[in-house]
Design goal:
Blueprint lengths: L2 H11 L2 H10 L4 E2 H8 L3 H13 L4 E5 L2 E5 L8 H14 L8 H21 L4 H6 L4 H14 L12 E5 L5 H7 L4 E6 L2 H13 L5 E5 L2 H7 L6 E7 L8 H11 E12 L6 H6 L8 H10 L3 E9 L5 E8 L1
Parallel strand pairs: 4-5, 4-7, 5-6, 7-8
Antiparallel strand pairs: 1-3, 2-3, 8-10, 9-10
Length: 323
């Protein structure tokens, strides 16, 4: 890194608003209009600030369908600039931002959540058909069961296996697999329509050790402050519907018991933008390195990974992270 490069980056970061933007992007990716809403400034001004940050290598962008989202660059290198940038972000993250925009951020994330919930409310009756456009549970359910077996969670051993959490159980197919292996299972979903279908599934299959809860991981964390942590948590083809995927890692890390395991099954990054309209996806999959970084930032240790290609061009990643 030359002194001129360092000066450009330092000058780009040396603005209170741009530092606030960089601090916010530590939570995840945001679009230009979302940033304008959060910081209450015109689009032309925000676009200028993002251009300055981008030219200095302090932010990157990713396309999600027809929209561009800005984020912090994935930073895993050991070169001078990467080390300096990590220290800059660490200093920004630990600093107090006098301009409290938390309510505005919550508003933006709530709009994302409402859009997702609205989609599932409209398509609750044909959920499986929508899911099958990308990957049906039958295509990867056996792989999930095999992963549980490899971790020692075997059918019939529920007396010694503690508590499990499934985030976004959908119609409940994987709840049966969990019910056979854990003493108690919690299914968490923001959609009352899908929870109703999961409840019917649990009743029909006598899954008496499963409890269904409407809400998100933040609300669950608040309600369980003094409760025992989960030994196992899973987000199965859910993250690409979540308003703030990185936040899930932080909140699940707090929900896990010491030594607990978090299994993430989701799509690898792809460019099939039709999935946003047809399947209600907020994100077009994820780079494996992003999940690794989010886990590390949350204090989780990376375990084994598996990948499976599908005929329609999608690829599924099975990722294990440990508390």
């Amino acid at each position: 890194m030359s002194l001129s490069q360092l000066a450009l980056a330092a000058k780009a970061a040396g603005d209170p608003l741009r530092m606030s933007v960089l601090k916010l992007l530590g939570q995840g990716a945001f679009g230009v209009l979302e940033l304008c809403q959060i910081f209450d400034i015109k689009q032309s001004s925000m676009s200028h600030h993002l251009k300055v940050l981008s030219q200095a290598g302090l932010v990157s962008n990713q396309r999600e369908g027809n929209s561009i989202f800005y984020r912090r660059p994935l930073n895993t290198g050991n070169d001078t600039f990467s080390v300096w940038l990590r220290e800059l972000f660490r200093a920004i993250d630990s600093s107090l931002d006098e301009s409290d925009n938390s309510a505005a951020v919550d508003g933006v994330l709530a709009e994302r959540a409402e859009a997702c919930a609205g989609f599932f409310a409209r398509h609750a009756d044909d959920f499986r058909e929508q899911q099958d456009l990308i990957a049906s549970y039958e295509q990867y359910g056996d792989a999930l069961a095999t992963i549980l077996d490899s971790l020692g969670y075997l059918p019939g051993s529920n007396g010694n296996s503690g508590y499990a959490l499934e985030i976004g159980p959908g119609e409940g197919a994987f709840l049966q697999t969990l019910s056979e292996r854990f003493a108690a299972v919690t299914g968490l979903d923001i959609s009352p329509d899908l929870l109703a279908k999961a409840e019917t599934f649990c009743h029909e299959n006598s899954l008496n050790n499963v409890s269904l809860v409407q809400g998100d991981t933040r609300a669950l964390l608040e309600s369980r402050k003094n409760d025992e942590g989960f030994g196992f948590a899973v987000a199965n083809m859910v993250l690409h519907h979540v308003p703030s995927p990185k936040t899930i890692f932080t909140e699940v890390a707090a929900l896990l018991a010491p030594g607990g395991t978090f299994l993430v099954t989701d799509l690898c990054r792809h460019d099939q933008s039709w999935a946003k309209d047809s399947c209600g996806d907020l994100w077009l999959g994820f780079d494996p390195a992003d999940l690794s970084q989010w886990a590390e930032d949350s204090g989780l240790k990376e375990g084994q990974s598996q990948y499976s290609g599908l005929r329609n061009g999608f690829q599924i990643q099975f990722r294990l992270f440990h508390a």
